[in-house]
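Support reply, case 0932

Customer input (verbatim):
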Amino acid sequence: MTYVVIVYMPIVSMKPVKQKKKMVGKALKKMVNGMIYVQSAKEIIMLTKMWKHFKTICKHKWYVFLECRKMGITWQGITHDLSKLRPCEFIPSAKYYTGTSSPVANERNAIGYSYAWRHHKGVNMHHWQWYIDPDGWDENGQVIINPAPMPDKYIKEMYCDMVGAAKAYGNGSAKDYYLKFQNEWVLHSETKEKFEKLLGV
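Our regenerated output:
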C-alpha cells in the first residue's frame, strides 16, 4: 500500500530534488510540489520525526529572536541557527529525534560522535567551540588549547541562545546551565568576564 503525505518543510538546499534524495535515505520516495509519497510505516515515522524536529527548531529560534531583539542584535536573531535546516544537520538530527533528549547526544550515543554538531559548531560563531585553537601537546600529553576572544555581538547571541533554549526546552535557567558545565567550557578570559556579566554570575 502506498500512502500520500502532504508536507511543507522549508529545508535549505532541497534543490535539485534528485541530488538530495540520497541524504534523506528511504524517507523520501518522490517529492513533487510539496507532495511526498511514502511506502511504509517506517517512512511515515521518519517524516513525523522530521516535522517534530522542525517545530522544535522554530520554537527555539522564536525565543532566541525575542532575546536578540532585547539585546539590539535583531538580525542575528533572525539568522540564528539557520544551519539546522541544512540537510547535513537536519537529517541526522531528525533521525535521532525523540522529543525528550538532544538529537546530538542521541547521535553521539549511537555512533560515538555527531555529524550534525560537527557542522553546526563550525559555522555558527555564537558557539564558544568555534574559537578553540588546539596547539599541540604539553609535557603531560594534554592538548594545549588557546581560546580566541569572541566578538561582543556573538557573546550576546550565545547568551540569547542559552536563554532561548531554557525557555523552549524548560530545562532550568541559562545561569544554572552555565554553572553546571562551566568547568567544561574553554573561554578566553575577556569572553568569560563579559558572558558571566550577562548571566549575572
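We compared this against your earlier run and they match. Two observations from our side: Residues 1-29 have pLDDT under 50 and may be disordered. Residues 51-199 form one domain. Please reopen the case if you see a mismatch on your end.
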